[in-house]
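Table S2 (continued). Query chain:
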Amino acid sequence: MIVKMRNKLAQEVSQKLNLSHELVLDLLERPKSLEHGELALPIFRFAKPLAKSPTVLAAEWASKLSENMPFGVQNITPVSGFINFLFEPAYVIEQIFKSVREEKERLGYSDIGKGKKLLVEYSSPNVAKPMSIGHLRATVIGQAIRNVSETQGFDVVGINHLGDWGIQFGKLAWAYDNWKSEYNFEEAPFDALFKMYVRFHAEEEVNPQLGEFGSEYFRRLESGDSHVRGIWRLFLDISLKEYQGLYDLLGVRFDVVQGEAFYNDKLSETVERLKNKGVLEESEGAQVVFLDDLNPPCIVIKSDGSSLYATRDLASAIYRKEVMRGDIMVYVVGMEQSLHFQQVFGVLKKMGYDWAENLHHVAFGLYRFKDIGKMSTRKGNVIFMRDVFDKAIAEVRSVIQQKNPDLENKEAVATQVGVGAIVFNDLMNDRVKNVDFDWQRALDFEGDSGPYVQYSLVRCKSVMRKFAQALPESAPTELSHASEYALLRELLYLPDVFSAAYRQFKPNLVAQYLLEVCRKLNQFYHNCKILTDDLEQTKSRVVLVHCAERVLDQGLRVLGVPRPDHM
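Corresponding output:
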């Protein structure tokens, strides 16, 4: 695809113009308008040393390159300081068809991360609480970043860093010992656990002594009391079973599931390292690290001797580097934790760990519904993730019943489309922005939505089933309509999109690219009949549909959006 074309063109251009191959390769980019060609070389950085205007230099170099046209290039034109390369359509479709046939499930992949390990932390729910719609972003953005990192050749390890420690577990343990007979832990354990959680915090506001009971139970938990530890492990088991149901629905996977408690026995060593590095100081009875460019300082140990999130995240970062051997570490956590991660990363840098430069907080905005503010689990005023997916599936089920009641596997398709609608609706947005959820937009089969992309993929699959023949061994040599070529050229850039999505940790680049492919695909359908009496033309257009199908399928897979066969 475009990667091979760029590499080959960079070799020829660098030789003819006596430039660095690596520099030319780095500079070659997609033109703003594909009418100008498939690749463009900006030459502004070369103009000043040669004492020429970019326009004049572009014209001179374009003329020199045109004397003996590079492989597959149809035309070379200078435009305002750029040299544009327009390739022959037959050459372009040959490159795409060859990539689709040879790369298969690795279509659009790169080896830039080969030999490196990337650790990505995502989802990270708090044990004993249902995942709210607020957890959706951490889960699906994280899985998409995991997937897109794999396209770059990294050995990726997905980590679910559970919130499984803190005084709330002392409170819940006390509540379990005193109230468990009032709840149905046999048939609905997770529901019982959450109801008990909400009740405790409501009653604590009226009776503050409950907080003291909870603190005592947490002290017992920290000291290793076997009874309280057993209750805590029960909470873990109940919660993980509940979460796995959602992860299975979403196709989310993890390689490592470790909570905060995993690092308890590593905290003292972490604090000792801080002391030995000479960065830990006392402030108002607490042990802190002062950071030159940040205020307030990072508190490592509170005045009462207890640890904090920062203590655990420092311990976990060191463990992930030294034991898990991570080269790059990514934390998919909400925007509200930005200061926290700036402090943690700043402390590690102050300790002299140069690998801290490869730690990345992938922040994201809030997920909001129009009729509810920021959600609070303690009050019970929360929209559960499971409820949102159930509603989406029900809505799609209703649409199927109205428009295609004879569809096979209706329930499976409703699940695929409903889940895909919610996931794509999140990922199509720039992660740093807040998402104002709109049911109508998310489930729109014709607008910018998951169902629209899924339907476009299904339509491609339908064409291939109707064609019902083996694809030609070689790519077609001619395209007869402008919309064919417009679609063809768009398909070229899948590798570039994956690469950019990884570099910026922004899955929305993939989602927006798929929407553009769909727009061009549907223009192609509108202007060109696919299955015609002209066998050669039919084969040519079926090959193009097949290539579009593979690109859409690969893009949706990387986003974690289901790919139905029928709709």
